[in-house]
Amino acid sequence: MKSREVRPPHVAAWLVDLFAPADHAESLLGDLSEEFSDLALKSGPSFARRWYWRQSVKTVTHLVGTAFRVSPWTTIGPVVAGYVLLGFGFSLPERAIVMVLHLRHQHVNPYYTSSQIEAYLFWLNNGILVGRLLMSLSIGSIVAVAAKGREIIATMALSLLLVAPFLVLRLAGHWPNQPFLPSTLIFAIGNSLMIVVGGDIVRKNRSAALHRPSSA
Hints:
The structure is a single chain. Helix 5 (72-89) runs antiparallel to helix 7 and helix 7 (114-146) packs across helix 9. 21% of the residues are buried. This protein is mainly alpha-helical. It has 2 domains: 2-70; 72-211, no CATH class. Helices cover 84% and strands 0% of the residues. The chain has helices at 2-5, 10-19, 25-43, 45-70, 72-89, 91-108, 114-146, 151-172, 180-211. The longest helix is centred in the middle third of the chain and has 33 residues, at 114-146. It is elongated, with a radius of gyration of 23 Å.
């Protein structure tokens, strides 16, 4: 009885669900779960878990490879478009915040005091950070909408493009000794995560729409 209550590894199942198209995720997980239960009965839970992890990795690898092999342009196209949007969009929050702060300051007082300079820098730096994170979230959502069924694959590919220059410099041993690079890398990783979050939001909405009962 206990073997029947054993469940597949949660993280492995989550990865399959994350990368699978919304209309295929349930069937894929169902097949894996059924085979897992049979193996747990025959060979024990430990063997079944190891098998499930191997199959999950193979499934995710197959899904990623198929996305770029079978329909490359519907996957690569949104990634390229998202990269272009990031190039144009990253400067927009900074421009908007500088304009708002400048107009507000000119309207209230045309001269800067030390406290106003500190407040200006605080809102400028934090506003740019928040604005660019929201910009990355929006662009990730746009890319996911265009890459239907491949939301996570496309947004992860775009995220890797953001951090790839830093990884290449590090692996090649040409990492410049400049203090701004670590913070820039952290900033790029944060934006990359927001891109994937945007893709996951779109994926979950599509999955919920598929499982929503149709009105009579």
